[in-house]
Predict the 3D structure of the following.
Amino acid sequence: MSTYISGGCKNGKSFYAQRAAKACGTPLYYLATMIPHDEEDLARIRRHREERAGWGFETLECGRDILRCLDDADPNGAFLLDSVTALLSNEMFAPEGVDMDAARRVADALEAFVRRAPNTVLVSDFIFSDALLYDDLTEAYRRGLAAIDRRMAACCDNVIEVVAGQFIVHKGVLPV
């Protein structure tokens, strides 16, 4: 059963996603998409690794080209992809330059991933609630992430929003 989880930063999405993935069966895979750029990123990665310790996840580092993870994993296993937000950032702001078509490619890849590995939990950040207008590139990123959110909401069995630690089910059920 596929589950899409979105919400604000540090609202408990990742911890809940771990529980949801574990309920999907084994083997358990954690698809780590963050490519660290500073000490804050490294600290976040350390925290997530500590939170996963003892849960039985095999971590697959995959900051770009998410479908290649299936080359090294059993598609019948349970997958936790954390996060869609980082995956889009990595693809859109790649070292070779800005890719304005990245959101479409990421959405296509994630849909294909969920079709091939139906026990997937995807985590994304809800970054659309402020009323600020940002520079054109940031707005393009936000629009791209919103487009991915809509596509994943359409293709996943469950769609859950986490707000202040509370779970709102927009589609399907709470997996755990």
